[in-house]
Amino acid sequence: MSSLVGPDEDDPRGKPPVPEDVQDAIRTLIKWAGDDPTREGLLDTPKRVARAWKEYCLGYDEDPSHHLARVFEEVGGYDEIVLLKDIPFQSHCEHHMAPIIGKAAIAYLPTDKVVGISKLARVLHGFARRLQVQERLTAEVADCIQEHLNPRGVAVVIEASHACMTARGVRTPGVTMVTSQVMGTFRTDSKSREEVLKLMGY
User: Fold this and answer.
1) What is the Cα–Cα distance from 128 to 94, expressed in whole angstroms?
2) Which helix (DSSP H) or strand (DSSP E) does residue 90 occupy?
């Protein structure tokens, strides 16, 4: 048997094939969970799940720092905090592969260059679309901005709900986890740190 299956016949967009071993793995999981992978409603589920996970993990196919390559130096002398907050994101925890759904606030104190504000969200999404833990995600976003923009300070705060805790295990809905990473001036100067966290709403 071929290791690949062809595009869905009823899909005019010709979706890429899904490896048969990937489909088999999903069928095994369905069966282990207690259902019948051969019943009508589940026949196409292995392909759908495989493609969904490819989409959830698009971050593995990109370098988030690429979004910070284009900068603007004509900022009219502006040298105060640049902040983008309430950025929604979705990730998956690497321990249970359960959804992590939340929002982030990203701030930096520029030296002589800034980036388009959408690029901050793209950096977040690039790292979030991987199997993650929230602490690492927070640090990766901050490190990336620090390394490629070389600002005087960086602050990242992420607040998220983890389905591995809300939907299983202790099953405690409504609980959120908050992580933060501050660098440069925001770490060494308490007044600057207080200012940026206040602007973020923390």
Assistant:
1) 11
2) strand 82-93
